[in-house]
């Protein structure tokens, strides 16, 4: 059984978000060898770009934020007591460590789909069909390209927390042509996988 995931899978586990337990359940099944986890290459790198943007945003905003807080404090109050910017830096560093650890876990047991000319070309078509984010178009093109080489009878599922982005009839139909179903969150994805494993 093949389970396709994208960058929100990495973020869900690394940032211990609302559906982290279910995403972790999928990863544990892959670590046990019960499912084949597949991740488009862009989905392994995109969380690090997002992390970099957040760190840059904080560094740019920090002087202005410190100025605002300083202007509100009574004279003599230590700014570091009110605004612990070093704490934010520690949170950022910890987040980077967890992202790195999560991607290593996924790639240890799963497969990363390469980005090549055909995948990139196909992604431009998906952008015209309604996947407005280039990253989503690349993810979808990678999955469709990989599905074309798989056994049509093997159970396959694409799990995305941003299921609404991919929840378009023409996109779901393309997945279904290759025997792949779309699950709109990790809870539904894990339920589907467990049901398949019991059959």
Following the backbone from N to C, one meets helices and strands in this order, namely EHHEHHHEHHEHHEH
**Terminus-to-terminus distance:** 12 Å
Helix coverage percent: 55-70%
Q: Could you state the oligomeric state of the chains shown?
A: single chain
CATH architecture: 3-Layer(aba) Sandwich
Form type: elongated
How many structural domains?
1
CATH superfamily: 5'-nuclease
The SS-based structural class is alpha/beta
Order of the strands making up the biggest sheet: 3-2-1-4-5
Largest sheet: 5 strands, parallel
Number of helices: 10
Radius of gyration, whole Å: 20 Å
- State the CATH topology: Rossmann fold
Average pLDDT confidence is 87
**Number of distinct beta strands:** 5
Strand content: 5-15%
Low-confidence region ranges: none
| CATH class identity | Alpha Beta
What order do the helices and strands come in, and which of them pair?
Elements: E1 2-4, H1 7-14, H2 20-31, E2 36-40, H3 41-72, H4 79-82, H5 85-109, E3 111-113, H6 117-128, H7 134-147, E4 156-159, H8 163-166, H9 169-177, E5 180-183, H10 186-198
What are its keywords?
five-stranded parallel beta sheet, 199 residues, Rossmann fold, 10 helices, 10% strand, elongated, alpha/beta
